[in-house]
């Protein structure tokens, strides 16, 4: 019996982890128009700038075999998009090298005795890439958006 409870708890926490990865977004969107300037300059020799004194590469190169259909974490159904999104978003929890659930954006969490309520404490000073504060309401918005029928999320069941 206890083994089943542990498995269920791990599944729920893993689901929350997946939700966090695919959900950290703001309900407000701001799009800045940018003009692309064509540059006829030849790229500099990258050999000298890619290696540091330890001989390790400073840059990461990732090649996709197809264009990602979406960067919307709630609508992902393909591996190309999922592979990129997993690198872009963090969750409340994550898995360590032993596949144990450990804090990520959450500092800690408490599970109610009946296992129906999870209360997360967020780390202090969390920010979106644009500098806005990351708040609990952002996670709430993401869960509600994923679960809303108008979103059409194939992953909604993971969040609920």
From TrEMBL:
Biased composition (Polar residues): 45-55
Ranges where the Solute-binding protein family domain occurs: 101-156
InterPro entries to which the protein is assigned, alphabetical: SBP_5 (IPR039424), SBP_5_CS (IPR023765), SBP_5_dom (IPR000914)
UniProtKB keywords: Signal, Transport
Pfam families, A to Z: SBP_bac_5
Any GO BP: peptide transport
Region of interest (Disordered), ranges: 35-55
GO MF entry, a single one: peptide transmembrane transporter activity
SUPFAM superfamilies (UniProt xref): Periplasmic binding protein-like II
Protein family membership: Belongs to the bacterial solute-binding protein 5 family.
Protein name: Solute-binding protein family 5 domain-containing protein
Native species: marine metagenome
